Amino acid sequence: MPLDLEEQEQLDQFKAFWQKYRNLITGVVTAALFAYAAYSGYQWWRNSQALEASKLYETMVGAIAKGDKDQTLRAADDLQKDFGRTPYAAMSSLIAARIASDAGDGNKALDYLRWAAKNASNDGYLALAKLRLVTQLIEQGGEKDFAEADQILNQKPIAGFESLWLERRGDWYLAQKKNDQAKQSYQEAWKKLDQAKEFPEEARRLLKVKLDAVGGIAQ
Predict the structure, then answer these.
(1) What is the pTM of this model?
(2) How far apart are CA 59 and CA 72, in angstroms?
(3) What angle do CA 203, 206, 210 make, to 5 degrees?
(4) CB 79 within 8 A of CB 88
């Protein structure tokens, strides 16, 4: 059926519009398709990584149950190397650090904690790694250890962990026999902890013991 004049005019306008802007339109559509493909590919990759990481983490858990320290640490190393962007890598590093520490290998424990404190993708694991790294460094007790712990504690606390940050600062002072500064840090930590009702009672009891030890009895 032949087009009437109005329809023909609209068609001519569309042709003119397409002729003028077709490169731009094609470019935008192509970019959108590439973006979608990249996003879909990333989602697939992330899900695939998480699945493979979870299998390796299960292997690690099995090794722990068998008391196989070497296999446990190998699994943690593999998770760091191959699946470092998944939460499983940080989880396994925290566990491996504890196992290495219990086995008397403080340097190996520090390596795991340093990795997690630098690479953990989850704020909770990141905070735990930094706090445990500070504790381990204080226990080491060397001049360089105290300096590294001080550098970490000078960083901005991760949200939700402010009281524990202050408590570790108190530990840092106390280990160097700076009791007045330790008491002040513990008191500030107690105030923060008192505002954070979600913290377990054990954390409060431990901090109270530390406060009492430096003469800053918690009320």
Answers:
(1) 0.74
(2) 8
(3) 135
(4) yes
Inter-CA distances, 25 with 9, 15, 20, 22, Å: 22, 14, 10, 5
DSSP label at residue 103 = T
Three-state secondary-structure class, residue 213: helix
**Contacts with 76 (C-beta within 8 Å, 6 or more apart), sequence order:** 60, 92, 93, 95, 96, 112
CA dist list (Å): 172 to 98, 112, 140, 179, 214:
20, 21, 12, 10, 13
Sign of the CA dihedral 128, 168, 141, 104?
negative
Within the chain, residue ranges assigned H as helices are 5-66, 69-82, 87-102, 106-119, 123-140, 143-153, 162-175, 179-195, 201-213
Region 8-21 average pLDDT: 58
Amino acid at 210: K
For 17-40, write each residue's pLDDT tens digit: 556 655 555 555 555 544 544 444
